[in-house]
Amino acid sequence: MASMFDIDIETEDVSEAEDEVCDFTVAETDIVQTEEVELTSATVNRDSERVGPECFELLTVLGKGGYGKVFQVRKVQGGQTGKIFAMKVLRKAKIVCNAKDTAHTRAEREILETVRHPFIVDLLYAFQTGGKLYLILECLSGGELFMQLEKEGIFMEDTACFYLGEITLALGHLHSNGIIYRDLKPENIMLNHQGHIKLTDFGLCKESIHDGAVTHTFCGTIEYMAPEILTRLGHNRAVDWWSLGALMYDMMTGSPPFTAENRKKTIDKILKCKINLPPYLTVDAKDLIKKLLKKSSAQRLGSSNMDCLDIQKHPFFRHISWDDLLNKRVEPPYRPQLKSDEDVSQFDSIFTRQTPVDSPDDTSLSHGAQQAFAGFTYVAPSVLESLKEGFSFEPRARTRRQNSSPRTPISPPKFSMAGPFKSSMEGEHSPPPAQAPATASLDNGSASQPIRTPARNKKQKAHRR
Predict the structure, then answer these.
(1) Within a domain: 10
(2) DSSP assignment, residue 152?
(3) What confidence tens digit (pLDDT) does each residue in 452-464 have?
(4) CB atoms < 10 A from the CB of 425, how many?
(5) Which family does it belong to (predicted)?
(6) DSSP 3-state assignment of 240?
């Protein structure tokens, strides 16, 4: 997706065929009057809904980052009028300044269109103006799993088992589509209004990683990064199972397995130190953590061709009916207490107290810069079907244990620009003036610190990006 593709086109040798005489008999047909029609998104996708910023009413600020904001919005025009969504607004001018940020945006947009799963956030619309990109996502009003973990300190094993089970199914689905996630952590796991998880933030994903394929990009969040990413020797989908083990340890002890006062020391611990498991964990929990946190990716549970099926068979999950879990027939251990669809009590009041304003779009980009966002516009098939019939959010300040390093994600240092976004809506129009919806045309044996307490301390904060 964010990489360049070389295509070899085979041609047939037609030298011998030139000597042959081809006799075609054409039956007479009535002359049919024809009309020449230009193929555009307007003519090919006649039922597609045209969407722009004016179709949404801003309700509340849910988050804010260096590249834009996330709003809770209500749709006020067209299909699904009255429904609540999350609207992620990104400034093009800031994104195009850095190739890795362009790669992040491209990856998120394209994967969200491609992937559909009960435990992965849904993209409903994507559109753009001259200076901004808009992603309309389902509003996950339960907030981050991290916030729930902060409140509880640690999760009991049955609670952790539920969340880890849903996450395992989501990762397995990504892997079956040749996608590795590479940034699993509590901040990227949201809860919907029922309490089920949804993976968000797909900017560090890598596509086309099937059996035997590897990639070498150094990326992720240090505390959850697998050793093979840190050593830059090449990695595959097994890195996600290491991250699952680190997340499991975090859920059940209150901290990731390897932490230190700075990034270098944290990396040294991940590469060299043995893991300390608290005595209160059950035998099955200890065994699963150990097998997921194998430093050798070839020995790690989930590294075989069976992928997530090996993990699903582990005794830790023996009480789970995977079919029931996938179909959301298992009651979540925690259900957010929400008064309405517009309830934002699960989000940080630092943001929700702000007045929601989408600043004027007065940025002018060159034609070359706009080409980086060609094909961005999207309307989900489910929306189009409903017309026929009738939430990764920018991270904020983090609370951290005193002895741990900031969870600063490491993104690809270099990125080679690819072609336009792959899209189900190939054609796009130049932004019309004034009020019309704008859809401009434009990838060693030393032990770690012992666990002092099975709780999550709220001390120093660190900012992501």
Answers:
(1) no
(2) H
(3) 334 444 433 333 3
(4) 18
(5) Belongs to the protein kinase superfamily. AGC Ser/Thr protein kinase family. S6 kinase subfamily.
(6) helix
Q: Is 88 annotated as a binding residue?
A: yes
Of 271, 272, 257, 265, nearest in space to 405 by CA: 265
Within 10 angstroms of residue 391's Cβ, the number of other Cβ atoms is 26
Among all residues, which ones are annotated catalytic?
A: 183
- Helix, coil or strand: residue 392: coil
Residues of the chain above pLDDT 70, percent: 68
**Do residues 86 and 113 both lie within one domain?**
yes
DSSP codes joined into one string, 244-295: HHHHHHHHHHSS-SS--SSHHHHHHHHHHPBPP--TTS-HHHHHHHHHHT-S
Angle of the 238-253 helix axis to the 157-176 helix axis, nearest 10: 160
Q: Tell whether residue 89 is among the known ligand binding residues.
A: no
Task: Tell me, rounded to whole angstroms, the distance of Cα 240 from its chain centroid.
Answer: 13
For the segment 203-220, the average pLDDT, to the nearest whole number, is: 81
Number of domains in the chain: 2
Other beta carbons within 10 angstroms of residue 64's beta carbon come to 17
- Domain span at 91: 53-141+341-396
Distance CA 448, CA 268 (A): 10
Distance CA(262)–CA(274), nearest Å, equals 19
| Angle CA 92–347–169, to nearest 5 | 80
Model confidence at 372: pLDDT above 90: no
Q: Token pair of 24, please?
A: 């075609």
Task: Compute the 3-state secondary structure of the chain and give helix, strand, coil in percent, each to the nearest 5.
Answer: 30, 15, 55
Rounded Cα distance between 61 and 70, Å, is 6
Question: Residue 283 maps to which CATH number?
Answer: 1.10.510.10
Residue 396 sits at the vertex; the CA angle it makes with 391 and 398, to the nearest 5 degrees, is: 120
> Which H helix or E strand runs over 81?
none
**In degrees rounded to 5, what are phi and psi of residue 220?**
130, -165
Is 64 part of any known ligand binding site? yes
Note the pLDDT tens digit of each residue in 305-352.
999 999 999 999 999 999 999 999 999 999 999 999 999 999 988 999
Q: What is the pLDDT of residues 121-160, one digit of tens each?
A: 999 999 988 889 999 999 999 999 998 898 899 999 999 9
The pair of three-digit structure tokens given for residue 378, joined into one six-digit string = 């999207």
The answer on 310 and 276 residing in a single domain is yes
- 390: annotated binding-site residue? no
What's the CATH number where 134 sits?
A: 3.30.200.20
